[in-house]
Amino acid sequence: MTVMLIVILGLLGLAVGSFLNVCIDRLPAKKSLAYPPSHCNSCGHVLSVKDLVPVFSYLRLRGKCRYCGARIPVRVPLVESAAGLLFSFLFWKYGLTYQFALVGIYSCVLLVLAVIDLEHRLILNVIVYPVAIIALIADILIPGIGILSGLGGGAIGFGILLIPAIVSRRGMGWGNVKMAGLIGLMTGYPRVFVAILSGIILGGLTAVALLLLKKKTRKDAIPFGPFLSIGSFLALLWGQEIIRWYLNLLN
Ligand SMILES: [Zn+2]
To answer: Ligand 1 centroid vs 22 CA: distance in angstroms?
Structure first.
């Protein structure tokens, strides 16, 4: 029975992933999420149900539009698969609890923020502000984080990235600072430290690797949003364990 539910939640996740792709395509262009219906970005042909089956349609059409042959970005099936795996995994970890819902929603938001930052170098206020309000309400209503821990986490996240944003004119933008504040509201104190610091470590290691492999030069800015997203995901799922492990290491 549980296996069956894990599969069903995975399928639901694939469908949610499909909606996340709509958000990723339309929010940076300030387009409505509801209208017009899904269409090919090249030829404008309205897509039918058989073109919109998550992952399956992409594979069946070999990554090309059925009507004009334009390439569908590989990001589309990747985001769908990621959301599918995420829902199955969170259900397996939490069951159908408020935590499943909350971590599920937060992870979807983090995924959308990460992909938009990768593709456009933008952290959108139209996502950050409303989700910050949702996180604040969740901190108050849902047992676990609490309003003080949430507000403290938000202030710490915002504060840690504020100084590099003021000092460096490139790289760390205001979008990252606001995103770090949002992450603090989501994770609360002290897990916000896990989120931001692991994001900084992952981003730093990746930057060094890209420099060594000569894929980037020192003048290129690397988007930081995806690393903040990964760090926050780790903090949401294993924040307490990571903090305990680190404190044991110190003793
Ligand atoms: Zn087309």
So the answer is: 16
